[in-house]
């Protein structure tokens, strides 16, 4: 599609040039709008930037910069350093945000980070596009993911807090369970799981049904591909990000088609502000990354087909993972009342699995009228959900 996309870009620029009389006609605007929509839907979107350069603490603007504090082949640990807090001078609780490795980049949690920055020393898992990881670096599976989380928790240090959004709720719960059973000092003081597939037997959604209605062999034959040249990860087996994006958009096809129709009409009317809002959202939404095939297939099998953590058969490196071993890490679960990815009750299931925790170390919150994305992004997240999580963290050693 690249030649057609380049042609669309060139003609779009021509049709919008102020010296071109056609640019002022309805036909010219219509053609330019159509070309923009075509070009946007065929573009290769690169990893976005977080773009969080400042926050507000006690009414004062504080500069923020990013710092990579640990780098591994398939991901890095990034810290958002607030000016004056390089050595933790503010005394705020350290918070590890575990971003999903499910197609989108960690920047999808930009609003999550932004809301927590004024009151926390924030770290985030910044996963790498598998298409950029050379084969010589080896593979990356669900066990490796859990190992990465334990290593990152060690870097952040004892006494920290952890928050997982969506898919990593399972590996984070497994990692904390494993550490708790070993009596390790890096067990976080609290763990918040948001919109995660802890037990997908409860209120199954469309993605859950897909996993149940197809064999693991079907997934391997149908969606796993090898990275093409000239990418650094040439010949690595991956689950391509564009396949995941296609699946997400198909689930809500009417909404996405409607959004693009509104963009078309906004371009015709010259409504630049509305068009810019559309571009900002979809530039982020379309930026996707490839997943290591072994990690993807293990997640499908262990989490969505066999529900291993929920039924008590989940193993890490050959050892059984028992959430009942958690006794000193407070647990908060958060769900969206209209979540069509992780159904209501799937995340709350973690409360039953962590049966050794006393009642005063557990909390559940369901936010009405928000879908999956609204659990960690948008007005309801900022005004309703984030304040509750902050209070929970503060209550448990924050």
Placed side by side, the strands forming the largest sheet appear as 1-2-3-5-4-6-7-13-14
CATH hierarchy, class of the largest domain: Alpha Beta
Q: CATH topology of the largest domain, which one?
A: Rossmann fold
Separation, N- and C-terminal Cα atoms: 51 Å
Q: Give the uncertain stretches in residue-range form.
A: none
Percentage of residues in helical conformation: 40-55%
Largest sheet: 9 strands, mixed
Number of domains: 2
Tally of DSSP β-strands: 14
Which quaternary structure do these chains form? single chain
Q: Mean of the pLDDT scores?
A: 92
Shape: globular
Backbone CA Rg: 22 Å
- Share of residues in strands: 15-25%
Order of SSEs, N→C? HHEEEEHEHEHEHHEEHHHEHHEEEHEH
Structural class: alpha/beta
**Which CATH architecture of the largest domain?**
3-Layer(aba) Sandwich
CATH superfamily of the largest domain: Alpha/Beta hydrolase fold, catalytic domain
What's the arrangement of secondary structure elements?
Blueprint (H helix, E strand, L loop, with lengths): L1 H14 L10 H17 L11 E4 L2 E13 L2 E8 L11 E5 L11 H7 L4 E7 L14 H15 L4 E5 L3 H14 L7 E5 L11 H8 L2 H8 L1 E2 L10 E3 L1 H11 L1 H17 L2 H14 L5 E2 H13 L2 H4 L3 E2 L2 E2 L9 E7 L12 H5 L8 E6 L11 H17 L3
Parallel strand pairs: 4-5, 4-6, 6-7, 7-13, 13-14
Antiparallel strand pairs: 1-2, 2-3, 3-5, 8-9, 9-10, 11-12
Helix pairs in contact: 1-2, 2-9, 3-14, 4-5, 4-11, 9-10
Write up this protein.
With 398 residues, the chain is α/β, with parallel strands linked by helices. It has two domains: 43 residues; 261 residues, Alpha/Beta hydrolase fold, catalytic domain (Rossmann fold, 3-Layer(aba) Sandwich), CATH 3.40.50.1820. The protein contains 14 helices and 14 strands. A nine-stranded mixed β-sheet has the order 1-2-3-5-4-6-7-13-14, with helices on both faces. Strands 8-9-10 form a three-stranded antiparallel β-sheet. A two-stranded antiparallel sheet has the order 11-12. Helix 13 links the parallel strand 13 and strand 14. Helix 1 runs antiparallel to helix 2. The longest helix has 17 residues.
């Amino acid at each position: 599609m690249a030649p057609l996309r380049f042609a669309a870009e060139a003609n779009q620029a021509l049709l919008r040039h102020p010296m071109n009389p056609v640019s002022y006609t309805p036909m010219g605007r219509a053609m330019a709008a159509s070309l923009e929509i075509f070009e946007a839907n065929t573009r290769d979107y690169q990893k976005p930037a977080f773009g969080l350069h400042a926050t507000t603490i006690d009414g004062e603007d504080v500069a923020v910069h990013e710092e990579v504090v640990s780098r591994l082949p398939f991901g890095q640990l990034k810290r958002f350093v607030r000016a004056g807090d390089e050595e933790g001078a503010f005394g705020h609780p350290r918070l590890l945000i575990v971003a999903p490795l499910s197609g989108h980049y960690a920047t999808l949690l930009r609003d999550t980070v932004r809301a927590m920055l004024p009151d926390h020393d924030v770290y985030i898992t910044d996963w790498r596009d598998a298409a950029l990881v050379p084969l010589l670096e080896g593979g990356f599976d669900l066990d490796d993911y859990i190992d990465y989380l334990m290593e990152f928790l060690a870097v952040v240090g004892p006494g920290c807090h952890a928050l997982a959004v969506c898919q990593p709720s399972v590996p984070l719960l497994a990692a904390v369970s494993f550490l708790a059973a070993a009596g390790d000092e890096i067990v976080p003081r609290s763990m918040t799981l948001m919109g995660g597939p802890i037990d997908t037997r409860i209120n199954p959604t469309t993605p859950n049904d897909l996993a149940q209605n197809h064999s693991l062999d079907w997934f391997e034959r149908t969606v796993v591909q090898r990275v093409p040249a000239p990418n650094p990860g040439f010949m690595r087996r991956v689950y391509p990000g564009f396949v995941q994006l296609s699946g997400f958009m198909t689930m809500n096809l009417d909404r996405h088609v409607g959004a693009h129709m509104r963009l078309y009409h906004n371009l015709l009317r010259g409504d630049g502000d509305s068009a810019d809002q559309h571009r900002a959202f979809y530039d982020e939404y379309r930026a996707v990354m490839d997943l290591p095939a072994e990690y993807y297939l293990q997640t499908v099998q262990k989490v969505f087909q066999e529900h291993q953590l929920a039924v008590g058969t989940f193993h890490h490196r050959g050892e059984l993972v028992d959430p009942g071993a958690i006794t000193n890490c407070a647990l908060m679960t958060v769900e969206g009342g209209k979540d069509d990815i992780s159904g209501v009750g799937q995340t709350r299931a973690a409360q039953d699995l962590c049966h050794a925790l006393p009642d005063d170390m557990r909390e559940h919150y369901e936010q009405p009228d928000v879908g999956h994305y609204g659990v960690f992004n948008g007005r309801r997240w900022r005004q309703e959900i984030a304040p509750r999580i902050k209070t929970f963290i503060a209550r448990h050693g924050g």
